Amino acid sequence: MPEISERMITGITEDDLFVRYMLRKLPLTGFRFRGFGTVTIVDVTQQQTMVYIKERLWKLKDDVSCMATAYEDLRLAIKSMLGSNKIEIGAMPFIIMNGRMVRKAGEGLVGGSTLSEQEVQTFFKAFEAGGKPVVVDDINETGTRFPLVEKILSGTAYRTYAAMPVFYQQKVYGVVELFATEPGLITAERIKLMERLYIELAQLMKVGHEMFENDIRAVISDRFTVIQPSVAWKFDEVALAYLQQQKVHGKVIQKEPIVFESVYPFYGAVDIRNSSLIRNNAIRADWQLQLQWLRKTANELAQFNLPYVQQLMQQQIEFLKDNNVDQPISSETISTSNALDKVLRKLLGALRQEQPETATICTAYLDAIDLTKGSCSINRRNLDMSMQQTIAGIDTLLDEMNSRMQEVYPAYYNKFRTDGIEYDLYVGQSISPQKPFSNDQLHELHIIQLEYMRKVALANAAQQHALLVPLHSTQLIFVNSDVIDITFREDEKRFDVEGAYNIRYQMIKKRMDKVHLRDSNERLTQPGKIAIVYINETDVDDYKVLLEQQVKKGLFTNLEHLQLEDLQGISGLKALRVTINEN
């Protein structure tokens, strides 16, 4: 064979035509190749997992919307880094509130433990003072030096536990926990691996810390102030204008009104039927019990020759007898009764100190009239408990309704307690200028309002067996299809309607709760029904279609079209009323 130089090979292999020719003449399938290769395998699990965890944590810093899924990914990655699937990880950020460290319940073992508030504070302060991890290798070993850890693990299957404090800018922002059912898994080496993530864990705690604070602020904003998220932008704009005026002029020279124009009002009221009558009956029943105790106590104290005590007790006996009539109990009557009770309570309290032989008699009476546990207030306590249960159920559903409505379109929502709960919701383009508002969204809000008023009635009916005093709810909606304006009043720190026509809307709301059908003694609102009050037929076109559809579906029955009695300054009211199908 002739010598083949590198230049010859290069010349041949760079010629595409020659290569294609040779592949046809000498196909590679006719050749066999032999050889060997070497592969070097290096375990980079820890290194790659560490890189993944750090990247995930830093991405989380910029996007907290995926916190739940990100935390689960991180939990699995940390298990991989630690080299054991048997070690569980918990993370619990907390905040400083009113001078104490506060954690979010349910996060980590500490968050879900049965520790008292004082014990939790002790647990946290140990980290704040020492700044070192707490490690318990086996909870079953005698002589464990951490009784709080024992209490945390008690009732669980976990035997080994470690808690690492996480600091951010020299302040404790949270705790990272490791726990396992087998002893010996949480070693010093594995804790050191966790410490290599310290900066990233501190950033995670910072994010959790901020989310916790935001959650608290959101609750305050939603439930306790008028500055709800839907309208906060307007307050921000006005506050900025005030600051700029102060900077330029040294004072606010022109107030800017906070007005939302042309919004659609939604009003609903859930009332407790005959609540005043029920409360009157409960008070009278308790007064009857107290009357029996007064007579008994007066007879027993007669032997001690106490004319002033006897006179006062007789006065109260006559008062209770005179007011045991079937008529409304005024606030003045209740105040008089409370005043008599207060004087007699003070007198008998002093008497049992001065004359110990009367102590048993006086104490028995004072215990009987105790408002928190005495037998003479049992009916009022039962009513109050039933009222709280009923209102709580209504309140929860109305909050859920508001959340659903806010998902459709940002709105301003306000509710207030009467004998039940009333709510106002205002929605429209001016509340969220950047988001278009359409009739389709208005229609969807009508659906949600009807759905939840029905849910309130059904929940109340289902709740009756659990109430000490039966309390039945009535459901009322007032429809005003015309838009109105609402204005924030700085002096009263609340929103109110603006303009003469809009004020009429408020006036109707206040006066229609006990309205009757025209030429009838029947109240419009009835348990197990939803009433929709309106003035113009066009106001309820959408509701009519919805109700007719839902009657066909079997959600409601007996759609009524009703004329209502005239109220003071108001005439021409009409109503739709449907019966809720509980089946």
Mean pLDDT: 84
Q: What class would the helix/strand composition place it in?
A: alpha+beta
What is the count of β-strands?
Answer: 14
Could you name the ranges where pLDDT drops below 50 across 5 or more consecutive residues?
none
Can you count the helices?
18
Rough shape?
Answer: extended
Distance between the termini: 100 Å
For the report, how would you describe the main beta sheet?
A: 9 strands, mixed
Q: Tell me what portion of residues adopts beta-strand conformation.
A: 15-25%
Could you estimate the helical fraction of the residues in percent?
Answer: 40-55%
- Tell me the radius of gyration: 37 Å
Question: How would you characterize the overall build of this protein?
Answer:
- With 583 residues, the protein is an alpha+beta fold.
- Helix content is 50%, strand content 18%.
- It is built from 18 helices and 14 strands.
- The protein has helices spanning 6-13, 16-25, 45-62, 67-82, 108-111, 117-130, 147-153, 188-195, 198-224, 229-249, 275-301, 307-322, 331-354, 359-368, 378-408, 439-463, 500-511, 541-553, and strands spanning 87-97, 100-103, 134-136, 160-168, 171-180, 259-272, 411-417, 421-427, 473-479, 484-489, 494-498, 529-534, 556-563, 574-580.
- The longest helix has 31 residues, at 378-408.
- The mean pLDDT is 84.
